[in-house]
Design a protein that fits this description.
The protein is α+β, with helices and mostly antiparallel strands and about 230 residues long. The protein has three domains: about 50 residues, Structural Genomics Hypothetical 15.5 Kd Protein In mrcA-pckA Intergenic Region, Chain A (Roll), CATH 3.10.290.10; about 90 residues, Alpha-Beta Plaits, CATH 3.30.70; about 80 residues, Alpha-Beta Plaits, CATH 3.30.70.1560. Helix content is about 25%, strand content about 25%. It contains six helices and 15 strands. Strands 5, 6, 7, 8, 11, 12, 13, 14 and 15 form a nine-stranded mixed sheet that branches. Strands 2-1-3-4 form a four-stranded antiparallel sheet. A two-stranded antiparallel sheet has the order 9-10. Helix 1 packs across helix 2. The protein is elongated and about 65 Å long. The protein starts with a helix and ends with a helix. The relative contact order is 0.15. It binds uracil (URA). The site of uracil has 9 residues, from helix 5.
């Protein structure tokens, strides 16, 4: 397979961007810098980008995406809406890690590493997620924040203790350690503050930062390792 195609399949970048990465001299094959995007390679060729192995079992990728509103966080949508996977060009199969509502924005991970995805979404290893909610119902009172922190009785049981703070009158941040369906919206509605806009700003050790909606970046090996540790509670 052509080197640029191989890199695209491994999720390094789009085909065209991968050609640039090769021409820039960032790619080695068997330890030698290769600047020809058409070089024939396979998983046994020892392809690396910036020194990091790509393809084969080491070819696992994790991307942090800023999901825009209106994009669904499934790999495919029966209604034909755009998906988070559509926003991350890669030749191979990618899956979202967990879910964000279609109208919510913010940090979502997309990966080809099924094992990591499972680890991060398993209820036993739930890593903390922080949401910024713009709510209706006027300024959020100290009493409402206290209820959000202490737990709210929802139809599917009480919520676990959470962190809640007011960022501005009608904007709060909630850090949850569980990932129930529409949880932030249901919690806020229960204290009289229906959510008008919802953004996930943190996922374990990762922050959304200043990625624009629709943009993504590949996590470094060190970031993936921090995630894994967060899920395992180390
Ligand atoms: N809570 C919600 O209400 N929606 C999400 O997408 C995530 C958490």
């Amino acid at each position: 397979m052509r080197l640029a195609k191989f890199l695209a399949h491994a999720g390094v970048a789009s085909r065209r961007a991968a050609e640039e990465v090769v021409r820039a001299g960032r790619v080695t094959v068997g330890g030698e810098v290769v600047r020809d995007p058409a070089r024939d390679v396979d998983a046994s060729s020892g392809v690396a980008v910036d020194g990091a192995p790509v393809g084969g079992p080491e070819g696992r990728v994790v991307h942090l995406l800023h999901k825009p509103a209106g994009v669904v966080s499934t790999a495919r949508d029966p209604q034909g809406r755009p998906t988070v996977v559509d926003l991350v060009p890669a030749g191979g199969r990618l899956y979202p890690v967990g879910r964000l509502d279609a109208d919510a924005t913010g940090l979502i991970l997309v990966t080809n590493d099924g094992e990591l995805a499972q680890l991060l979404t398993h209820p036993r290893h739930e890593v903390p997620r922080t949401y910024r909610a713009t709510v209706a119902g006027g300024p959020v009172s100290a009493a409402a924040l206290r209820r959000l922190r202490e737990g709210i009785e929802l139809e599917d049981g009480p919520t676990a203790p959470a962190r809640a703070r007011r960022v501005a009158g009608g904007v709060i941040e909630l850090e949850l350690h569980e990932g129930r369906n529409r949880q932030v919206k249901r919690m806020c509605a229960a204290v009289g503050h229906p959510v008008r806009a919802l953004q996930r700003v943190r996922f374990g050790p990762l922050r959304l930062g200043d990625l624009a909606p629709g943009e993504h970046r590949r996590l470094s090996a060190a970031e993936v390792e921090r995630l894994r540790r967060a899920a395992l509670g180390r």
